[in-house]
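Lesson 9: reading folded outputs for more than one chain in a single document. The general rule is that every protein is listed as its sequence immediately followed by its structure tokens, and records are never interleaved. Here is the first one.
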Amino acid sequence: MKSLKIYMLLLAASFQLIFGQNNNNNQNKTENVKEVFSYVHFHGAPSKGKILMVASSPALSEQTGWPIGFWAAELTHPLLVFHEAGYEVELVSTNGGKLEMDSFSNPLDASGYSAHDMITLGYMQKEEFNTMLENTKKFTEVNPADYAAIFLVGGQGPMYTYKDNPELEKLFVSFYESHKPSAAVCHSTTLLLTAKKSNGELLIKGKTWTGFADSEEDFADQAVGMKIQPYRIETEARKIEGTNFKVAAPFSAYAIKDGNLITGQQQNSGTAAAKLLIESLEK
């Protein structure tokens, strides 16, 4: 009887050891499993809403004498994010009419600067994309109530066409104060240097945000052998009290969400900023 009792105890211990190891193995296997899931809008699915994108109309740089406009990747990369998330997009501009890419942002440009930009190259093959660029409304012609969010496209043009543009500031602030996601990337963040809320305070007061970095301006100036921009966003932002302007390593994808204000550092940050906007819409 005593031998049977000892046998049963040993048997129970063996079962515990075996099944305990199996459980541990299963747990280890589970810990090593990584799953990725994200919604991708499928053909025929209903639209989730409409996002307003604003781009600079063509202008002339007073610094370089170059024709300037919008940076292609700052339109196309967010556009892909919005389309895959199930949102329609309407593109408007500062003056209406035909839009032009900054030449260095065109993947077919002889400089080869953006030759790697397959997303823009893909959109350039689509008739509806080129038609969209051919004839835009002026931003003053739209009703903010018709859109779920706003996204300001950057480039070289905004340093002239967004700066000291009270009507565009008013449009952006109207989205912000309606608690809608309000995004700006790269040089479009120049608008935030002066945009004020309805109470007269700067929109960026108490906010953490980003924009084109001085180190990136240095790189660009050295690359072409001249000063490209009439002023620098980071330099001007750091003169403003009560706001927290941050930058990451030059040309890294970097975006910040602070409340419903979303900002991206430069052309490589459009996707990150767009994803933060979608997260805000769907939280």
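And here is the second record, again sequence then tokens.
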Amino acid sequence: MKLVHVLNFELVVLIFTVQKTHTHQTNMCFSMEMSAAFSAIGLFATYWVYTKTSNTQLASGVFFFFTMELLQAVQYWFIADDINSPVCDTQANKVLTVLGYLHICLQPYFCHVINASLTRNPKYTDIYNVIKKLCLIGGALLFSRFLLAGVWETQDTTVMPSTEWLRGHKLCTFRGNYHLAWSVPMADATYVIPGVGLHAFLMFAPFFALYEKKGMVIQGAFLFLFGPYMAGLITANLMEQASIWCFFSIAQIAIMLFFIRETLIINWGKGGQQSLVATKGESKKAKAN
């Protein structure tokens, strides 16, 4: 077993000692295998929605969050031992880190793609169209902070650590205390360049703005408590909290689909199926009525 750890460590980290590797692997609660398992759950959930319902918008939203967990599983193959590791300078590590940050920037949009997919009310459909456009604009602004790093004035986080999620002095995916940690250089926030807090606003504000819609406030609170709040309880590392929340997102979606599965079949069921619990004869009778 120790030999396996040594070989795997040399493949990924290249130059660090076996003792240091063993310590890091022991401390990490999450793993490539766990990320792969959760991505499989996400893929199955996507398949179920796509094959059992005609709600392709919902399927696309679930598929998006599946890709995040798949990306995390892949990143474990190219992860750096810490932010000072030479693995941070490899092209694979950098590209995967950029993809991870891009995915994060698009999360509010696809969160509300899922919300929009669950209503047929024209009033709320129009509202969600505006919300989704704002999320795309906000996501582009967040990603521009990375593109402007080094061009616009950029705080030296090695001297003054950032209070923002993900922000670091170099581009890298490395081992956090329990899971992946992402370090992304970002230009300083100004009046025209938003902080990472814009992500939280775009993700959660619509739930509370639509408080009159049944269940929205509860959904928003559930998403927050078992997302960023729980991630903050698990680790104090601001570069790691986002990846832990991403890990839990598939579980959140799977739980949601479990509770609304009957509603999905009734409203968007394929092949004339109107209920998961009704027999075939009952479904035909309900359809005739």
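What the second record shows: Residues 32-288 form one domain.
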